[in-house]
């Protein structure tokens, strides 16, 4: 028989396996549920709609908003751990759940630094981690504007403006190179929303991501550092491991991520997004305390996927092996085309499987709209494959799934 919490809700299923709740019904929760099935579990999700990606596949769905404390309490009732598909839950709600005795993982004290870019920058600076120069633009408007002008002039107006909270995938981020443009954006947005932060525009060779996991026991594990390719402000391609990255630099990035997770008390998977500068320095850009787009390659290219590892961590199980299965794995996001093709997704999948049987396709159950992440493709390379060849094949497959056209001009009916 299942054991029960003080609320009367079962804390374990009929099989004796624990219940984990994930807040958010998006593709990250959907793929976490896939990993949960193999562990004998059914992931409970709090979803705003019963048609959301995770709600389509989980048998344990609470329909409600992450902004509603009552809905959060209902979703958490009887679960041994509560975790996240996104970082948008109000911190005060999470603190209320913790006061109720809910095991929030990662805890609110850690998640705060993924929600608030200014708090993150200040904490990283306190810990001595390398970060871009930044300016706090909160407080009195005139004083903030003066600080902004001084910061912009110091960096020749090659700067980035960001909202302190809520921005992602290019939203709430403005890349600026001229004083007039900078002041116009500042004046438009300084009085609304959560406030702004300014950062220097780093002379960058490429972007990297160091993904790790940490358990409540304190065990840590790190996957190889990967290269991420951004387009239109969002991740388009991931190369794993990052080609040509110096072994010492890769190890340093992994240790920075593991050390930061320990310092902040993170539980679960964490992505530390990085800049590799033109002179070889590595700077910390952003943090995500949940499964992350830069870790999707692990579903087919690593011994333990990020989704299984996240569950292991929040359940305080021993963590899994993070070794890659090949010398190169490439993930390419399937993004909605400007105009959805007349050919159905089912037929596109049929053609891709016929032409590229080694392509591992992961679709999210989402409708198509421009630039929306609707799935991804993983190509696991062989010893004979070059990085360029594997990348070309992954991007060709993803483009086909998005647009129903082959980038190399191949005609399936010729």
Quick synopsis:
With 414 residues, the chain is α+β, with helices and mostly antiparallel strands. It is built from 12 helices and 17 strands.
Total beta strands:
17
How far apart the termini lie comes to 61 Å
The overall pLDDT average reads 93
Main pleated-sheet profile? 9 strands, antiparallel
Helix content: 25-40%
Determine the strand fraction and express it as a percent band.
15-25%
Shape summary = globular
Extract low-pLDDT stretches: 1-10
**Rg (C-alpha, Å):** 22 Å
Oligomer description: single chain
**What is the chain-wise order of helices and strands?**
EHEEHEHHHEHEEHEEEEEHEEHHEHEEH
Number of helices: 12
**Structural class by SSE content:** alpha+beta
Distinctive features:
single chain, 9-stranded antiparallel sheet, 4-stranded parallel sheet, 12 helices, 17 strands, globular
């Amino acid at each position: 028989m299942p054991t029960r919490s003080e609320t009367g809700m079962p804390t374990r299923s009929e099989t004796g396996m624990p219940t984990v709740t994930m807040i958010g019904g998006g593709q990250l929760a959907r793929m976490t549920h896939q990993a949960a099935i193999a562990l004998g579990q059914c992931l409970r999700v709090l979803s705003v709609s019963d048609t959301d990606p995770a709600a389509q596949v989980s048998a344990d769905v609470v329909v409600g908003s992450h902004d509603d404390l009552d809905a959060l309490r209902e979703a958490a009732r009887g679960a041994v751990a509560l975790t996240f598909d996104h970082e948008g839950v109000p911190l005060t709600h999470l603190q209320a759940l913790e006061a109720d005795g809910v095991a929030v993982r990662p805890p609110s004290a850690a998640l705060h630094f993924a929600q608030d870019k200014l708090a993150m920058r200040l904490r990283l600076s306190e810990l001595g981690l390398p970060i871009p120069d930044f300016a706090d633009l909160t407080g009195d408007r005139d004083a903030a504007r003066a600080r902004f002008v001084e910061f912009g002039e110091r960096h020749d107006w090659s700067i980035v403006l960001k909202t302190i909270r809520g921005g992602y995938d290019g939203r709430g981020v403005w890349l600026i190179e001229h004083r007039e443009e900078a002041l116009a954006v500042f004046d438009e947005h300084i009085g609304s929303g959560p406030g702004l932060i300014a950062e220097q525009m780093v002379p960058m060779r490429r972007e990297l991501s160091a993904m790790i996991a940490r358990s409540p026991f304190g065990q840590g594990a790190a996957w190889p550092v990967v290269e991420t390719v951004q387009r239109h402000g969002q991740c388009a391609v991931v190369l794993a491991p990052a080609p040509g990255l110096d072994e010492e630099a890769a190890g340093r990035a992994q240790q920075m991520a593991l050390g930061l997770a320990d310092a902040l008390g993170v539980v679960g998977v964490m992505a530390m997004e990085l800049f590799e500068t033109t002179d070889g320095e590595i700077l910390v850009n952003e943090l995500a305390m949940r499964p992350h787009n830069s870790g999707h390659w692990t579903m087919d290219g690593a011994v333990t996927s990020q989704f299984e590892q996240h569950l292991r961590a929040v359940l305080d199980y021993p963590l899994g092996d993070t070794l890659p299965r090949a010398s190169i794995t490439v993930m390419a996001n399937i993004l909605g085309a400007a105009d959805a093709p007349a050919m159905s997704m089912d037929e596109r999948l049929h053609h891709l499987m016929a032409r590229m049987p080694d392509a591992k396709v992961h679709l999210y159950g989402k409708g198509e709209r421009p630039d929306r992440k609707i799935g991804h493709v993983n190509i696991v390379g062989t010893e004979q494959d070059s990085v360029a060849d594997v990348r070309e094949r992954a991007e060709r497959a993803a483009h086909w799934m998005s647009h129903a056209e082959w980038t190399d001009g191949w005609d399936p009916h010729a």
